[in-house]
Amino acid sequence: xKPFLIKLALNNIILEDEFKQAxxxxxxxxxxxxxxxxxxxxxxxxxxxxxxxxxxxxYIKHTExxxxxxxxxxxxxQVLIKAIRMGVNExxxxxxxxxxxxxxxRRFLDRQKKRKRTSETxxxxxxxxxxxxxxxxxTIAVNLAVSMAQAGKELSVALxxxxxxxxxxxMLLNISPxxxxxxxxxxxxxxxxxxxxxxxxxxxxxxHVLPSPRYLNNQPVPPPSAMDTLLDLMTARYDYIxxxxxxxLNETALKILQRSEQIEIVTxxxxxxxxxxxxxxxxxxxFGDINKGKINVVLNxxxxxxxxxxxxAQEGVGKTISWIVPNDYTTTMSAINSGKPxxxxxxxxxxxxxxxxxxxxxxxxxxxxxxxxxxxx
Length: 377
Ligand SMILES: Nc1ncnc2c1ncn2[C@@H]1O[C@H](COP(=O)(O)OP(=O)(O)O)[C@@H](O)[C@H]1O
Ligand SMILES: [Mg+2]
Description:
The protein is an alpha/beta fold. The protein has helices at 13-22, 52-62, 77-86, 98-120, 137-149, 169-172, 181-186, 193-199, 224-237, 251-259, 271-286, 310-317, 329-338, 342-345, 350-363; strands at 4-9, 29-33, 42-46, 67-72, 90-93, 124-130, 157-161, 201-202, 208-210, 240-246, 262-267, 295-302, 321-326.
């Protein structure tokens, strides 16, 4: 995790040393100098005379998202009130008492962590799981993501491929990503916003893709803890993270499912698939501690004249089918062969309308959301 940056804007070297000594034990902070260009999470000033207040006030006004501590030998209540009104977060009287400094920094860290948690829980994870191989899980995941990014609501959407050997998203979107999540797992200690922004590839639809390694070659399966860290960062950056889970049902997949707002289980009109779906739902609920309400069944490649009727399908699954996707061999095949999402191949087709309709009615917020800004450094 990135350390919280504390900038010491102190003219007095002895005071600077005393502060550094007092906070030595904190491992999640890094002290930087006044001239350092990095954006600090906390800036510490010394108030030598009351006139310094104007300079500090202007700093607070022009610097977003930074806390300010004031160190001062003057504990005049008038000055204190003025400082607090300006937005100073902590006021420490001189001479510095190490315990007092520690207490204030501890409170600062608590506030930062709380803030981070609230912002990190804002993105929603939608997992797409196959009840069998070849039922259209990747097709559904890719085109859901694209439809969400194209919905005109300025939503930021990421697509994460968890199929270890058969990750096909880059092929379906005709992109050649330089990195995959295997690179992240190998460099977990470097994982931060900056690293993540360099690793995801942007598709012309606006979707940011994090592909899978696609070969075994010593690729470790990401442990659940690593997945947690990755999802923390992704949910902080994106409004939606669509995960193509394929049929992976290991501990890491379970972690993703537990963190998902919605789970789409993809099935087709075949009895073995429907019965697998039924068992998958039961396992998720009974062993994975997953709320049944967030599981949706997607009946893909639907044919009205299929041998298994819709009523039979629902009976087999033991749950109402949430979404029916028509069988459209021509459009899906030409999408695969041209490396384009369905909407770029046939924008007016029934299958594209079906994606847009489901996204609009079931996945998108009804209030227009403010776009999250992707920070490029
Ligand atoms: N709605 C559909 N209609 C017709 N063919 C489809 C549909 N959805 C997927 N397919 C086809 O099924 C095959 C498998 O799809 P894919 O998304 O790769 O499945 P999975 O990820 O479950 O292995 C592909 O050839 C794809 O074009
Ligand atoms: Mg697939």
